[in-house]
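Open question from group meeting: does this chain pack into something compact, or does most of it stay loose? Before anyone orders reagents, we agreed to write out a predicted structure and look at it together. Recording both the input and the output here so the notebook holds the full record.
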Amino acid sequence: MSAEFAQRLIYLVQELQQPLCIYANRRGQVVRVAIGTPHQTRIPPLELPRYGEERLCGLRCIAVSFTGDPPSNADLVAMAMQRLDALAVLSDRWSWLCHLLPSPTPQWQVSPPMSLEKLTKQDFAGLVSNLEAEFSRRCGAIAIAAKQDRVILAGLTRNYSRLRELQQLVESAGGVVLDILTQWREQPHPQTLLGEGKLQELMVAAQIKQANLVVFDRELTPAQIRNLESKLGIRVSDRTEVILDIFAQRARSAAGKLQVELAQIAYRLPRLAGRGQDLSRLGGGIGTRGPGETKLESDRRVLQKRIAHLQKQVTALQNHRARQRQRRIDREMPTVAIVGYTNAGKSTLLNQLTKANAYTADQLFATLDPTTRRLHLQEFVGVDCTVLLTDTVGFIHELPPSLLDAFRATLEEVTEADALIHLVDASHPDFAAQMRAVQQILQDMPLVVGETLLVFNKIDVLDPYTLSAMQEAYPHALWISAKQRLGLSRLCLEIYRLVCL
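Structure tokens returned:
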């Protein structure tokens, strides 16, 4: 590009009073001319000549501004998203040359203001060749698990414990959290949840951290997911979808897999719309010509049939569990269900009391399938009484409604129990909010639950002062350490008092 040609472009843009972008390949051929800024005219990744972390796309952009402003943050993000060879910003006074950098931070470099003559004398071919060689070396040295998501968390909250829990959920699902961005607004933005400025910050963070997924701390509407993915250029998910993914990974029994599939389909059904042209093409064959039935409608009908089929199976499972409970009642064997927030130690307590071998791990939703075992109280308190002890699925704040509906057959184990053990993780910094979340879920259940025994777990990791203060605040609670077998005899004595006398 000559300085004379650049001057003509600037004159044209001043006449139009509109910014102009020209995209050219490495042979100097113009492939696209568009009115607007680089951010407004960016080329989708699928339309680029090539796309990859180890090389540039093969296009350079000449952006002509009639205002004389330097490249904006949005334009630099657009350059990074497209992996342009270079971005040259022209104005009637100064020009700027921008390009990506191989180092993680900063993501790009912007030259000082220069004249058109100096800009046109730059060695673009040498610059691009050196950059690609450096990108290739750096990418070869970075080892990332093939199926591991690199995640940025985004929250519209002042409650940082909620974001810490979201981070635990993402890590339990197998992702790596790179950064957390928060914003507080009185009213969420109806289209993107976040404001324009915070969205720009999120775009920059995603490029700098090389994230491939953004997870929000609340459930998003289908339109919000579509808008966010369009603006950010990477996948967008929400808290509900992460929980469903964890459930899909952890379900082991046929009943558990059945309930998880029902919950996933119920979540995805309203989100079919707006997922591109693949779901809006007309079908083929008799009865689909003319206006016909769109692919979206066809997929929706298939999912609705699958939901109806799965609901019948869940109902059959519900009836089967009801018959099992009736047999227990006929045998006059009392039942106790352990409920609590996820990762409170329910499976560990079941293992210690009944010598079961339920899977335990320090992670959210380590186990999903309910496990029932016989508890012989004589081993702990010397009285001849046998109780059926059930470990249930863990609760969580704002448990997705689709999961509550799908797991109704499992949760009925709670409503039909003679007594409940509400197990609380005493070491959690926000244990009071977890207690309220569990109590709210129990209150929302259709049947009246039995008498509840409040039990605080993991007291072995508390300092004496904190433990003493908590015991004063909850004088009627029991205090145990399931892992260290502390306080189990007192707990069994209370179970005997509740269900055996």
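Observations to bring back to the group:
The chain is about 40% helix and 15% strand.
Residues 141-146, 274-293 have pLDDT under 50 and may be disordered.
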